[in-house]
Every structure is written in C-alpha cells, then in structure tokens.
Amino acid sequence: xxxxxxxxxxxxxxxxxxxxxxxxxxxxxxxxxxxxxxxxxxxxxxxxxxxxxxxxxxxxxxxxxxxxxxxxxxxxxxxxxxxxxxxxxxxxxxxxxxxxxxxxxxxxxxxxxxxxxxxxxxxxxxxxxxxxxxxxxxxxxxxxxxxxxxxxxxxxxxxxxxxxxxxxxxxxxxxxxxxxxxxxxxxxxxxxxxxxxxxxxxxxxxxxxxxxxxxxxxxxxxxxxxxxxxxxxxxxxxxxxxxxxxxxxxxxxxxxxxxxxxxxxxxxxxxxxxxxxxxxxxxxxxxxxxxxxxxxxxxxxxxxxxxxxxxxxxxxxxxxxxxxxxxxxxxxxxxxxxxxxxxxxxxxxxxxxxxxxxxxxxx
Length: 363
Ligand code: ADP
Ligand code: MG
Prior knowledge:
binds magnesium ion, elongated, 5-stranded antiparallel sheet, 6-stranded mixed sheet, binds adenosine-5'-diphosphate, 13 helices, alpha/beta
C-alpha cells in the first residue's frame, strides 16, 4: 500500500532521515520505536507531506506522491495523522470539530456528516460529549475526539505520532484501547510510540529507528525478545552503561575500578557480581596491556535493566584481534579465570570498531 524507497530528509546541513526503504501493507499495524531525535516524527510527516522529503520516492497505492501534480490535501485525507497534542479547534464543539473537514473538503452534506460523526463518537466512547467544547474534556477524551475526527475523513491509513505521550498516565489506556479496536477492525496504521507493551501486542511489525534509519525491523517477538543489532539491544533491554577510556599502558586502574564500583552500587548489583566484573576486566586488560602503546581502548560496563545481564565490552578502533585467542602459555591461567566468571564471550568487528564482549556471571 505504501512503498518507500531511499527516503531522505535534511534541514539545511542536518540530515535527519538518511536512507529509508520499506513497505507498509494494507491492514498492517507498524509500531515505530526508538530514542528521541532519531527522525520518527519527521518520517511520519514526510509520509503525509507535512514535510517535503529531500530525496527518494513514496508510492501510495502505486501513485507517486512526491510528483508535483499530487493533490496534497487528498493524500492527507488518505493518510490522516493523529498528533501528540490533539490539535482540536478550541472554539468549536466536539461534533463541529468532526464535521468540519468532511463538509469543507469532501462536500458531504451537514446532515450526513453529523450522522457519521455521531457514530464515530460512539465508537470512541464519547457519544455523550458531542456538544462539549474541547476544554471541558480530559486529555484522554480529547485524544479520542482527535481519533474520531481523523476517522471522519475515512482514511486508508492512520499515522499516530506518540498519541499518548501528552497524557496523564491514568488516561493512556483509554486511548490505547481505541487504537487496539481500530487494529482489530483491520485499519492500516503506523504508530510512533514509547509504550512498549502496547507496541508489542498491537503491531504486526516493529521498526526500530535510530540515527535517521530503520536500524532494525522485525516482528514484535524478534525486536523485543531477540534484537540482533547492538543499538536495538541497548534500547530494548534498557542497557545502562559506564565507559572508561584507556590511552596508554600506564592508565589509572584505581580510578577505573572505582568508577566500576560506583556503577555497580548505583544499579544495586551485589558485591560478588562487582568483584567478578573487576576480576574479569583486570585479567582481560593484562592481555591488552602490551598493545596499549599503539592503540586506545574503551572499557564499557553495561547493565541491562530488563534482563539483569551485566556485560563488559572492550572496544578499539585499531585492529588488534581477539586477545583471548592470541594469548601464549602464560595467559592460560588468565583464560581459565575469564571463562570461569564470564558465561558468554563474543568478538565482533562492527563498522571498523573491534568489540570483545563478555557477559559476566551474576552471583
Ligand atoms: P523524533 O520524533 O524521533 O524524536 P524528530 O523527527 O522530531 O525526531 O527530529 C529529528 C531531528 O530533526 C531532531 O534533531 C530535530 O531537532 C530535527 N528537526 C525536526 N524538525 C525540524 C525542523 N523543522 N527544522 C530543523 N530541524 C528539525
Ligand atoms: Mg517525535
């Protein structure tokens, strides 16, 4: 239904969307998650032409919508958007908010528009509020009116940009329930959200966006239970980190260890876990030591709040190789110690950075 190819968007020198290619199929619910500032809103606004993409192509039902002959209001009706901040007209009643666009833009009769709008208000649970003004409603009610107003244009796709993030926590679920209902009825939707449990059960597909890209996409199970790529893992598992840069073989190991202890303390890791962490890091750093004249190393301690996993990363932009594999005889004991305290060890080179990763046993 929507086909996006090499979509990019810049504001002056700032590249917000780099190169996005994907498709959204009819009846599909796509949840878009990711840290703030990564271009999620810009992506939705480009789809609906509130922002003009800098490059790439978007086809909706086979029609090239970036073509200059495109009827922009028509595209916006087809792909209607619901915003975080409701955007209701405050001088109009709820019912008037709903009937305005169908009458003005689609030439629907007032009577027909009113009848249909009343049905939609009942659908979102607000039949009784038709003659109220927006300021007489709660945030959750306002957002449900905004959804009904969006539906009044009979869109083929609805784009939601963080529909619940301006709401009191007590009102989030009434809005999510309405969106769930639309999903059940087969509405095609793209939803930017921070509500992970909701994204997981409403979506067919999840886009994890980071730094202007769809960095990883998959089913909710793939993205939430088994993310494959580093930044997705950090985001999904809420990995907290502390980093220490090592620039020479004479680095201050006491300062580094103190920082690690402080980090363990802050995240309530046990003294034993902390000592395992320090032990493994010391052994590994011994192996790196002869190489530290020529290369810089960053030690990262990560604690995944969601899984409870504690990991130790050694990152270097210089190619060193896997120190756990090149070691001589005297390193055998160190290796035994490391294997004893780390339950998972892997070595990867990603985008020119070498990374040795160890999951430290928790006790
Ligand atoms: P997200 O929704 O993921 O938080 P946005 O799409 O809102 O991210 O923004 C991505 C980046 O684009 C941010 O750095 C933001 O400051 C920038 N940006 C967004 N809109 C504009 C604009 N109209 N002019 C300049 N920069 C913008
Ligand atoms: Mg946003």
